[in-house]
Amino acid sequence: MIGKALDYMVMHGVAGLTLRPLAGAIGTSARLLAYHFGSKDGLITAVMDEVRARAQGSFAEAVARPGKGAAKGAMRTFWAWTIHPENVGHMRLLFEVQVLAIRDPATYGPYLRGTSGSWLELIEASLPPSRRNRAVATLCTAVIDGLLLEYLSSGDGRRTTRALEHFGRLMTDTARDGGSSGRKPATGRIGTPGRTGRRERGRA
Amino acid sequence: MIGKALDYMVMHGVAGLTLRPLAGAIGTSARLLAYHFGSKDGLITAVMDEVRARAQGSFAEAVARPGKGAAKGAMRTFWAWTIHPENVGHMRLLFEVQVLAIRDPATYGPYLRGTSGSWLELIEASLPPSRRNRAVATLCTAVIDGLLLEYLSSGDGRRTTRALEHFGRLMTDTARDGGSSGRKPATGRIGTPGRTGRRERGRA
DNA sequence: CGTTTCATGTAACGTTCGTTTCATGTCGGA
DNA sequence: TCCGACATGAAACGAACGTTACATGAAACG
Fold first, then answer.
1. Does residue B162 surpass a pLDDT of 50?
2. Is B163–A144 a contact, with Cβ atoms under 8 angstroms apart?
3. Do A37 and A43 contact (CB within 8 A), yes or no?
4. Å between CA of A31 and C1' of C6
5. Which residue in the set B98, B166, B173 is minimally distant from A153, CB to CB?
6. Mean of the pLDDT values across residues A78-102?
7. How many CB pairs under 8 A join A and B?
């Protein structure tokens, strides 16, 4: 049930979401959505929690795959996972909520619990210690976000991927720490799923 | 009239915009908005055209100011202009429309005529010829967009500005071209793009 | 069996939306 | 003075919104 709602929201977004079309598309009714999730907000909360759980799980699995996460740097791994067709819909949803939260933090802020912040921590933790600081982490996060926006707008995966690889080259070419050469995997602590409680009433 | 509507949209965004609250806030009625602009879409079109006109004019004026545009690189100038309190509202509006256009190009795409594309061209044209290519231009645009998102979300102008300056250092430190007057990285402050003029233009 | 709880459908509630209809002003030119 | 074009207000229209009342069927359980 919640999976179907997630699929619908991945397709249609969260900005102009209304219950009746969603209910009709997934074979239920607005009456039952309100019954199972308490309210529209409860539904969105449940779906966004599901998105976060799936994304974290999928990404943890991707970086744990041998020879993938460590071989080409954390940012490249993260980017490849992001624009993968299986994941890009979830990333688009999270991105959309992040932008909506700029105008309306009271409404959309709660859906972001630990989402955007965890990206920054994740990237910052994967930086080599010599350049692990807030400015670099902010820059890396911005590169990912900006390229994601560009990819979502244009669909040009080749150009955006090349831009990211160029950025990675900029980083490694100016590395001051010895023995860079892509040998700094630092694949530790990525998941940190935080709190996952939040059982509501009414299973679906 | 359109100026007041613009101010309201700068404050409240374009996602959940409705006529009656806007009309009440600027001292008119939904009836008259529909009368003067034909429809809600016509109003948004007029306002977004005004945003684009003001932004382009203001930025052209900023780069034309002697000793500012050329001294510290196009990206730094663009960034300083972007997060200036006088302009950041317009940039937020354009950013918001760009994100909405991902989901609904039919509705919000027309409001982007020449907006995002012109940024890329503007930045690409300001790159030194040796590194003027699509990957670098895409990367620079993404850095601006991503840092703008981060700034709009966190309001931390110092951290985002430092991240941009770090990116500028990455670019200049790996510059292989000796041309274009190898200037210093200009580590000074950025956020002071001249005096505070530019009172509101007339226009209804 | 009776009762209690859950699940679900039908239909309505009160709002708000963009837009339209109708009426009435206002005012410059013939 | 009359007139046609524009401007404005009051109110309503149909649609869609989230939510809720009420009825009903099915199952759980003493």
1. yes
2. no
3. yes
4. 15
5. B98
6. 95
7. 128
- Among chain A residues 12-41, those with CB within 7 Å of any atom of strand D: 17-21, 30-31, 34-35, 39-41
Instruction: Give the C-alpha separation, A111 to B123, whole Å.
Output: 34
Pair of tokens at residue A112? 């972001």
- Chain A residues close to B102, C-beta within 8 Å: 92, 96, 149, 152-153
A138-174 pLDDT, tens per residue?
Answer: 999 999 999 999 999 999 999 999 999 999 999 888 7
Residues B149 and B160 sit within 8 Å (Cβ to Cβ): no
State the pLDDT confidence band at B132, using cuts at 50, 70 and 90. Answer: confident
Reported as a pLDDT band with limits 50, 70 and 90, residue B21 is very high
**Average pLDDT taken over every residue of chain B:** 82
Backbone torsions φ then ψ of A39, nearest 5 degrees: -165, 175
Residue among B101, B134, B146 minimizing CB distance to A145: B146
pLDDT at A58: 86
pTM for this entry: 0.84
Is B103 exposed, middle or buried, given 0-12, 13-18 or 19+ CB atoms closer than 10 A? middle
Q: Is the CB of A169 under 7 A from strand D?
A: no
Q: Residue A37 CA to C7 C1' — how many Å?
A: 14
Tell me: the pLDDT tens digits for A19-75?
A: 999 999 999 999 999 999 999 999 999 999 999 999 888 888 877 776 655 556 788
Measured in angstroms, what separates residue A82's CA from nucleotide D16's C1'?
Answer: 36
First to last CA, chain A: 5
Query: Cα–Cα distance between B66 and B171 in angstroms, integer?
Result: 24
Chain A residues in contact with B170 by the CB 8 A cut-off are 170-171, 174
Question: pLDDT at position B151, please?
Answer: 97
Tokens 């720490």 locate to A177
